[in-house]
């Protein structure tokens, strides 16, 4: 890209003084500068758009990384009130605690199925 100063120096060094040529050169330079400004503006807008899209995706990921448990149905409420407490300790469960809890749930389900049959 040629600067305006370089254009004027080149024009003056030739000494011809053709003002129409100078106007044509300056108009071409102006068009080139406007094109460059448009490209920069378009890149800036694209960059802003991509940044916004990235931020929205990050917010969605954060939202889905902590899922909200679904609302309980009236049938679930009735089952919850009739259930016994789970044998899981309040601390973080280990593998055996999980197996025991699953056995307990299976036994409850089997007993409930026998009563309803």
UniProtKB/TrEMBL annotation:
Region Disordered: start-end pairs: 48-98
Low complexity composition-biased segments: 53-64, 81-93
Protein name per Swiss-Prot or TrEMBL: Uncharacterized protein
The organism's taxonomic lineage, starting at the top: Eukaryota, Fungi, Dikarya, Basidiomycota, Wallemiomycotina
